[in-house]
Amino acid sequence: MAKCNSVFLLGSLCSDVDFRILPKSGVSYAKYQLAINRDKGKGTDYPWVCSFGKQAESDAVHLRKSSQCLVRGRIQTREFKQPLHCPNCQHEWEKESVATEVVADNVEYLNNCYFPEQEEKEVN
Length: 124
What we know:
By secondary structure, the chain is mainly beta. The chain has helices spanning 53-62, 116-123; strands at 7-13, 18-21, 28-37, 44-45, 48-52, 68-85, 92-109. Strand 6 (68-85) and strand 7 (92-109) form a beta hairpin. It comes from Neobacillus paridis.
């Protein structure tokens, strides 16, 4: 059986992009959530998408809440420890958690996206 981990998602952003520079590596990182309608109006899914490097920088510039985009990427599952604390006794502990997200390799910006270069042309 061939190995294939590839997805295409067409959806609209639920909120603005969370853009950061990762402290240990200095790599650009962007994270956002898409609203994707299911076939025949049978609900909506809300997967998280993350991108790195130049793609993350481009996503942070062009995408805003309600921007529509087409994402080509791969599914990634990662484990992490989530810090928790009790508001009453202030006891702290870590909970093992799992996140499944799409790592974007390429993003096409469609409707309601921001293009600063077009704005500059309109001003001149």
